[in-house]
Fold:
Amino acid sequence: VIPDPSITIATLTPEGTALAVTWGDGHASRFHAVWLRDNCPCPACGHPETGQRLVETGGLPADLRLADARVADDGAVEVVWAADGHRSRFAPDWLRRHCYCDADRTRRRPRLRSWRADGRRDLPEARYPDVVADPAALGAWLAAVEVYGFALLRGVPTVPGQVTRVAELFGHVRETNYGRLFDVRSVLNPNNLAYTGLALSGHTDNPYRDPAPTLQLLHCLASSAEGGDSTLTDAFELAERLRAEAPAAFDLLARVPVRFRFADKEAELEAEHPVITLDARGAVVAIRLNNRAKQPLDAAPAQVEPWYAAYRAFVALADSPAQQIRFTLAPGDLVCMGNLRMLHGRTAFAGTGERHLQGCYADMDGLRSRRAVLARG
Amino acid sequence: VIPDPSITIATLTPEGTALAVTWGDGHASRFHAVWLRDNCPCPACGHPETGQRLVETGGLPADLRLADARVADDGAVEVVWAADGHRSRFAPDWLRRHCYCDADRTRRRPRLRSWRADGRRDLPEARYPDVVADPAALGAWLAAVEVYGFALLRGVPTVPGQVTRVAELFGHVRETNYGRLFDVRSVLNPNNLAYTGLALSGHTDNPYRDPAPTLQLLHCLASSAEGGDSTLTDAFELAERLRAEAPAAFDLLARVPVRFRFADKEAELEAEHPVITLDARGAVVAIRLNNRAKQPLDAAPAQVEPWYAAYRAFVALADSPAQQIRFTLAPGDLVCMGNLRMLHGRTAFAGTGERHLQGCYADMDGLRSRRAVLARG
Structure:
């Protein structure tokens, strides 16, 4: 067996407060002493059964120094600590996998893709009997939801309540004031515009909830009404277009909080978030766009008119047919989408005939967890 | 009846793209035309049954101007729009309540308070039979959880599963891979350090979940073991102290993402967030501190040592006994806490005797909703 040069140590240089490593493939890593000690995998520092850290990071000496470092016969890196003589042993593949040089950190960032921008025409979809029977089919379907933000499932039994059983294939239903599931159809005295036959412009659900559900499932039980076509728009893609074309507008939508609200007899929900939420690195991680639930803007007077102009620009992108994926849900079809990424909408539908969807919420972390467990094989 | 001067209009001055108002108490408001038109309450712009907005904000004309504005006999402000002759009518108390001048916006910001910093000695608590029987008692208890970040409930029946019934008094159980509820006691082959007799330093739960649950309930069923005292620390207060005393450290903890992870046979959960999450206005809205679940730091090399120093400073604040609220949970006691605000910990407990808690997760939005509905009277 030829050893993999990328996890073979060529040189090892203890530098007191850091350890410099060059690898067989020429890559250079540098690990700080405090980082190494915090990640010591010995049974005293990490719990052997749970894999959880036992050493209290906050209690590590402030002046950690390496007394010695060497490559053992089995290839492991052995470190001796100056302060207390503690010894740590690191597997070389673990070290290489956790190298935090700029290039490796950039490479490791998750990459989401846009179905539309990828030029795909066929929708990402699977058949219900397949994902129930075949873990690989389920894993591939979940991957589409995570990477592209949505996927369809065909041939789902048209049984009321089935939508929550689909959610339980990979995660946990997020119960809300609408219940474990909700019926989307035209009713008398609606408490929500969703329960009318009106068109709904592209929106994310429940921005008035905190935390908002990160996944939504909609399952079609009946669709004999005229109209009621479904639309999906990848709002992360829209946001990146806005960032490129109108950075000041993007910045306002990411900085100015908007209050969202839902109230009926049983509930009174309010939450405040900008339309675009960025993570600490500046990546777009959530979109809250719901014109129905938007409350009067409570922003600095100088921001009001520019914010409205930015909002208009963003909605214009969202309303562009070129950005929308349009399809018809037939009985037995189910769409699962990232609720803080994909705008979903519908065209108006007529009072004659029936259109009945059932929906439920769930969360992306459960989906990712199931995907990871399935990938273990 | 003497009219309330604060909602009586003294002068009304249409300025084309804005409406200037002075009130009977001398306060001055200025409402932009686009803001007014977006909030027109007429039945064509807002749905009369759901209270949701019908007018598409993105479709409003870009050059909205007031043609005329006057105070009607009933005190309402009537506006006529230049572009299309549309008329809007605003109640004066609604306008005053939504004035977005700097002073009013600052005044409206929610104020959380620190139980410890307020110098309180008695714990915020209520009796279970009271909150079940009396909506006002329930509302007051929920208010304590929201404002102070935690409250105790005494006299909760020591029946397994009771903890989820308490959650359902105000919200919805957040089901996770641990189930609808989980048992906290020492077990063989634990998948989590919580299920050992080890001490747990102050932490927030489930930082590896996205979204993390915002409320946690812990209900004591048995506590004959030696030790196992509970601690609570208001991490929002800690963060503000850090911001005041070491702004560079605060900034690093708010900017550098940390990966958290939990894995066992059934689940593999990972999420990445900074220790301190700020909202768009810079307010602290979430703390993720969980040394057990913290993964190797994946930060720019120049940030690694400063980040560790900042983390150490934050943990030193958290570990200070002066910052901790310490108490013993007896059978029938339940603590409900904001999971992204309060650090909870426990001292070690002995193998003899029994210590058995049941816990569940829920979310703050349901709690706030119930509080708001109860406040309607």
About this structure: Chain B has ten helices and 21 strands.
